[in-house]
Amino acid sequence: MPELKTEVDPAEVGLDADRLRRLDHYLASYVDDGRLPGWQLAVTRRGKVAHLAEYGHRDVENGLPADGDTIYRAWSMTKPVTSVAAMTLVEDGTIGLQDPVSRYIPAFENVRVYQRGPATRPVTTPAANPIRVQHLLSHTSGLTYGFHRAHPVDEIYTANGFEWATPPGLDLAACCEQWASFPLLFEPGTAWNYGVSSDVLGRVIEVASGRSLDEFFAERVLGPLGMTDTAFHVPQEKADRLAAFYTADPATGKATRADHMGAGALHKPACLSGSAGLVTTLADYHRFTQMLLGEGTLDGERILGPRTVRHMRRNHLPNGKDLHTVGRPVFSEMPTAGVGFGLGFAVIEDPAAAGVPAGPGEYAWHSAAGTIFWVDPAEELTALFFTQLMPSSAHPLHSRLRQLVNQALVD
Questions:
Q1: Comparing C-alpha atoms, which of 170, 175, 270 is closest to residue 214?
Q2: Cα separation, 375 vs 383, whole angstroms
Q3: Which segments of 277-322 does DSSP mark as H helices, in order?
């Protein structure tokens, strides 16, 4: 298990220690008044951990602290890992960004696009263009999630057992067969919607590589980076390290234990989800962010080339638009104005429009379970915050984190 330690005095890398304590104080208040069970935080600059903090519990009821041993459900922070894994195959020449997904999953050969009508009798037309690998990476495929509950196509997903999980017993290949039979929200490449694109991308990885997704991750990303606690489930010998799962009570905002939503992490899933399947630790995911900051390399291990990482963090939305213009308003707390989307990450294009004190080019992602990371190449800064509370949008944590980290930059 990699250990995360403070490596440098904040002042040596342009951070003000007193200002960083504002961040700790703010986050501690969420635990003290019951809105969060506990949390961990790491702020790194120029490749050195300058601020490391933790507070509260990973399991309130059993008095277990939120500490370096804690394993968290990464949920949607699985998506950037899947994206990086896919890009290793692009660099191999095994797949191409413009390849039709049907080359690897034939069921996607004849997808149709929703036009009108209820979920029970939708009117559809054949897609004019294929879903391509790049559309999966940029969430411009037209695929969706059932839990959005904002469109008849969302209802089709839910009616078929796809909401916050996949139907019992279906593996990734079988899930892709079903998703290919559902209508798309829009013509591929014309808009942005958060959905199962990264899951389908995971299946592309499996077919193209001839390896299961867990094996490919271990060989090409997790193993080389030393992410020894990151996997698709928590084995029995580590079960006591898994954070309990909490939801925000709609009436009070207090964290309420919800074991039924988090128990799946203790069992190997039938469907290896490239969207939301991983469990990880702060130390493990920190290594992943340092690889990104290092433009594909960490501790002598090169996962991707620097030009590939730079390409991933460009805005790949249609006509260079932002999420506000071409995206659907969904659950995310993340701003949409002034924010583009790359190949696996949201990318800040216009900080003023986004309303965040960040520099252009900062890229990030988060999860509905409360975890978030971002990488600021210009400032050589990364930040990671881990807790286990759903939904992440119950409190303005993620936006406040950016404010409080960036106000501590003083050089």
A1: 270
A2: 7
A3: 282-293, 306-312
Residue with tokens 């960040």: 358
SS3 label, residue 346: strand
- Contact 254/34 with Cβ under 8 angstroms? yes
Q: Where are the domains of the chain?
A: 10-83+213-406, 96-209
Contacts of residue 33, Cβ cutoff 8 Å, sequence gap at least 6: none
pLDDT tens-digit map of 124-154: 999 999 999 999 999 999 999 999 889 999 9
Helix axes 282-293, 78-92, angle to 10 degrees: 40
Residues 6+ apart with CB under 8 A from 109: 102, 130
Q: Are 315 and 342 in contact (CB under 8 A)?
A: yes
Residue 287 tokens, joined: 């290594």
Chain centroid, CA 120 distance in Å: 31
Pairing of strands 372-376, 381-386: antiparallel
pLDDT tens-digit map of 15-73: 999 999 999 999 999 999 999 999 999 999 999 999 999 999 999 999 999 999 999 99
Residue pair 72/366 in contact (Cβ under 8 Å)? The answer is no
Could you give the C-alpha distances from 20 to 9, 67, 247, 281, 404, in angstroms and in order? 12, 19, 28, 22, 7
The HSE-up count of residue 63 (CA atoms within 13 Å, CB side) is 0
Q: Which two tokens stand for residue 79?
A: 């998506």
Residues found in the chain: 411
Say which DSSP state 45 is in.
E
- Segment 260-302, tens digit of pLDDT: 999 999 999 999 999 999 999 999 999 999 999 999 999 999 9
- Which CATH number applies to 10-83+213-406? 3.40.710.10
122 with 114: CB under 8 angstroms?
Answer: yes
3-class DSSP assignment, residue 168: coil
Buried b (16+ CB within 10 A) or exposed e, 21-48: eebbeebbebbeeebbbbbbbbbbbeee
